[in-house]
Design goal:
The chain has 189 residues and is of the alpha/beta class. The chain has a single domain (8-187), classed as 3-Layer(aba) Sandwich (Rossmann fold). The protein contains 6 helices and 6 strands. The chain has a 6-stranded parallel β-sheet, with helices on both faces. Helix 5 (141-150) links the parallel strand 4 and strand 5. Helix 1 (36-45) runs parallel beside helix 6. It is globular.
Length: 189
Amino acid sequence: MEKASRKAVFVDRDGVLNVDLGYTYKLSDLRLVDGAVDGLKTLQKAGYLIVMITNQSGVARGFFSIDQVHQFNNALTQAIQTQIQSFKFDAVMICPHHTEGKVAEYSVACDCRKPGTQLITDAAARLNIDLKRSWLVGDKASDIECAINAGLTGIQVVRGGKQYPHSKQALAIVPTLKEAADIIVKQSL
């Protein structure tokens, strides 16, 4: 078996890339978080794979459909591409599940809902990612817990919409993805 060799940054969607309004799915609500595009540019230039990971329990709860999640993710990518023409996510990983959902198909316990690690391990297997050299940037303590569970280093972003308690396990707590990217690049020199 080939040894995993690629480095990646797993980036949470709501609150890190786009403003988190709570169950954000409407295209009219799409607003990029300040510093998100600059952070992505920095990570891309440094040679990191960039994987978007997102819990979207609104699907299980019946607030919106998985198709609407894909439409929002596509619009988000297009909004980023207006500022970084060559940009694309190397993978987009979505957990639509929640045990208290109303849509039977998605109302299940799973290993992909963060802080579970299946979104990360699936992307790592598909893209040959070395998790020891990789990072996760999220806005919730559960994102940082996911990072630790998967063997990643986690950084918490705190200015992307809703304010969540700070994680004591985060390597750093920063305002935006740009500051997180600067730390990641500096640490990997």
